[in-house]
Specification:
alpha+beta; eight-stranded mixed β-sheet; five-stranded mixed β-sheet; 347 residues; binds N-hydroxy-L-asparagine; Glutamine Phosphoribosylpyrophosphate, subunit 1, domain 1; 9 helices
Length: 347
């Protein structure tokens, strides 16, 4: 079947699903969710999601488990030069790259690492925490010690060339100021849109997937906010904040200013909203609205804040919403279909 025809058919089914969702909400709102209702399907945050989805799709295409897909998918990003993921990313204010990651499977198991240094694949360490320990979360030197015991090599701890440049630039003023959509900024001195080799300057990655067996899993991995206070941990390794999966309902992950996501238990909220029957896009929108409400009394800060959620439900319907324009997510449900969709935004 041609892609065009397939898309036409999907739009047909999508329209109906959306119609009913819209009626339930008392309004007709047609989410832009191409590929909705597909299985298997994987979605992930920002442009980096395109490459990450390719890694995940190799697993999903062959009937593999969503858990393996979301681990292998984000490992692609952890291996790339990036502003915001993996050891090549930007450091904290003391010049050290510290990594946060979490993973969650279809049985409600989860694992995470926070403030992890000099380990290339924090997502795989998070998975080992989930599978090899009675715990959910390991942090700092303990997480690093565990990783080494598990056979992960200890890397040299040097900043990548891009990170060094960005850090030296930052040191001139030493101001901590999260930059909205830093992942996509075309002109910021801190965040070139493309690296010298022409690749996109990738970013924090969150991924959720539904496999051919109908099981959901998710992953999230990041270096956190650049130039953060040493020791700062964001939402990404916190289950219910940066990532949440409920195999009966859906899965969600977050990107942006983690402090705001933590305050609202953002992804748990998104999944609970889906449990009430909301389409993933509507659920993400309501969670973003909740975050915006939390700015009461500090409204001026809102314009400098980005948070985006992506979500998928048990039926493979997906959606996203963010505070500010500029967030996008990658959707993959076929060898020939892996594309970026702009996240709808409130402001
Ligand atoms: C954090 N949420 O550490 C992460 C950063 C992020 O796109 O997602 N940036 O707060």
């Amino acid at each position: 079947m041609s892609i065009a025809r397939r898309r036409l058919l999907q739009l047909g089914t999508m329209g109906l699903g959306t119609f009913f969702t819209g009626r339930a909400l008392g309004k007709i709102n047609r989410p832009n969710t191409e590929g909705s209702g597909r299985k298997p399907i994987v979605i992930s945050t920002w442009e980096a999601g395109i490459n990450a989805n390719k890694g995940a799709w190799k697993v999903l295409r062959d009937g593999g488990r969503a858990l393996d897909a979301v681990e292998q998918g984000v490992m692609v990003t952890e291996s790339e030069q990036s502003c915001c993921v993996g050891l090549g990313a930007w450091p904290d204010r003391d010049g050290f790259v510290t990594l946060d990651a979490s993973i969650m499977d279809e049985n409600g198991n989860c694992g995470s690492v926070a403030f992890l240094e000099r380990i290339k694949h924090p997502i795989s360490v998070a998975r080992r925490v989930m599978e090899k320990t009675p715990h959910v979360m390991l942090a700092g030197v303990g997480a690093q010690q565990f990783a080494i015991e598990q056979g992960f090599p200890l890397e040299n701890g040097q900043l990548s060339g891009d990170a060094k440049k960005a850090y030296e630039e930052w040191l001139k003023k030493s101001e901590y100021k999260p930059i909205v959509n830093v992942e996509n900024k075309g002109s910021s001195a801190f965040a070139p849109l493309r690296l010298p080799n022409g690749d996109f300057n990738h970013d924090t990655i969150g991924m959720v997937a539904l496999d051919a067996h109908g099981n959901l899993s998710g992953s999230c991995t990041t270096s956190g906010m650049a130039f953060k206070v040493r020791g700062r941990v964001g939402d990404s390794p916190i289950i219910g904040a940066g990532l949440f999966v409920d195999n009966e309902i859906g899965a969600a992950t977050a990107t942006g200013v983690g402090e705001e996501v933590i305050k609202t238990c953002g992804t748990h909220l998104v999944v609970q909203l889906m449990a009430q029957g909301l389409h993933p896009e509507e659920a993400c929108r309501k969670a973003v609205e909740k975050i915006i409400k939390n700015f009461k009394g500090r409204e001026a800060k809102l314009k400098d804040t980005q948070v985006g959620f992506i979500a998928i439900n048990k039926q493979g319907e997906h959606g996203a919403y963010c505070i500010q324009k500029g967030f996008n997510y990658a959707v993959c449900y076929a060898d020939e279909y892996n594309t970026l969709i702009d996240g709808k935004h409130i402001m």
